[in-house]
Amino acid sequence: MFIDRVKIRVTAGDGGNGVTAFRREKFVAKGGPSGGDGGKGGDVWLEASEGYNTLLHLRYNPEHSADRGRHGEGSQKSGRDGGDTTVKVPVGTQVFDVETNELLFDFTMNGQRFLAAEGGRGGFGNTHFKSSTNQAPRYHQDGSPGEYRELQLELKLIADVGLLGFPNAGKSTLISVISAAKPKIADYPFTTLEPNLGVVNVSDYKTFVVADIPGLIEGASEGAGLGDRFLRHVERTKLLLHLVDVSSFSGRDPVEDYETINRELEKYDDDLAARPQVVVATKIDALDDEERLESLKAKAKKDRRRFFAISSVTRENTRELVFAVSQMLDELTEEETEREDDFESA
Predict the structure, then answer these.
(1) Interval 117-133 mean pLDDT
(2) What distance, in Å, lies between the first and last C-alpha atoms of the chain?
């Protein structure tokens, strides 16, 4: 089961109390304060791990707490610190504060760690308060409570390329052809109910990652169909492949489908709508009206977007599409590097 949004509660450990104690040793003429400090409470950490690709393991386990610090003891013995707790999350997880909706952290790399809740400080024992004017303090300090937080975790898949289009536009079939991913494929709407990731092998040592999300319909940005629930999974992508079914069996106008999806992108996120986009006419093996293909091609040209016509069933032009996408990704990476260099030199 693919779960990409959960709420969890994290509670750090309380700090241990200090203690009031005095030395009582044989043959020691003068004792004195000997109360030790309390130990620090354990922290709760979130850590990105490539071993997870969903938040399912947290859905039924929302409570996470760390150990409390031990109390101090006599003979100036400090209490032991509480043990930390580490919660694993998938790479691509964003952490929000439930109360303020503030983005606290964004996990983009394996091994990144975020301090979700800090353990309480241990209290001082009476030894700590000894001074020239107070040789025998009879008080200590209690430990402070550990931090408590309610967190909203949201997963955004990290991929180079995102596939967009109406239901049954051929996204799942394409990703199954160009990668090792095996999504469910059927001839009814909303076959894809959860995002799929596929690694495309371009050549030796050169790959890119494609994200296939459930099909969109008009009103998706307001929640129609599967709505915007999965649109965020293509927010991190560098390039969008907009798949449009041009076969006569679809019963829809290709240009109208193309325009509808782009309107939904604009309503959802202007930056996503402005992302580089390749228009891909699909199912040309079932094309019996050339005008459907030509009208979409003309619209893509007018919008200054690259255009490909493919058949995933016969694999016509799919390899050419893969090589073109790889080249475009290289160009986008170079542009990004140049912008970063210009920013650093400014």
Answers:
(1) 90
(2) 47
Average pLDDT estimate for 306-330: 93
Q: How far apart are CA 2 and CA 194, in angstroms?
A: 6
Q: What does 17-34 look like in DSSP terms, one character per residue? A: P----B---TT-S---B-
Query: Does residue 171 sit in helix, strand or coil?
Result: helix
Residues 6+ away with beta carbon under 8 Å from 315: 177
What digits encode the pLDDT tens for the residues 258-308?
999 898 888 888 888 898 999 999 999 988 889 999 999 999 999 999 999
pLDDT digits (tens, 9 = 90+) for 200-215: 888 777 888 888 877 5
Q: What is the pLDDT of residue 273?
A: 87
Structure tokens that stand for 226 in this block: 């599967």
- With H, G, I as helix, E, B as strand and everything else as coil, classify residue 178: helix
Question: Are 252 and 290 a contacting pair, CB within 8 Å?
Answer: no
Which CA distances in Å does 4 have to 72, 164, 166, 229, 267? 43, 19, 22, 9, 22
Two structure tokens written together for 292? 């459907």
Q: Judge contact between 322 and 201, C-beta under 8 A.
A: no
Q: How distant is the alpha carbon of residue 20 from its chain centre?
A: 48
Mean pLDDT of 73-98: 92
Q: Compute how many other C-beta atoms are within 10 angstroms of the C-beta atom of residue 27.
A: 4
Tokens 């469910």 identify what position? 184
Distance CA 19, CA 101 (A): 40
| β-bridge partners, 203 | 206
| Cβ-proximal residues to 324 (8 Å cutoff; 6+ apart), any chain | 278, 306, 308
In the three-class reduction of DSSP (H, G, I as helix; E, B as strand; rest coil), residue 201 is classed as: strand
Token pair 């998938």 is found at 90
Domains of the chain plus CATH, in order, are 1-25+32-155 (2.70.210.12), 161-345 (3.40.50.300)
Report pTM. Answer: 0.69
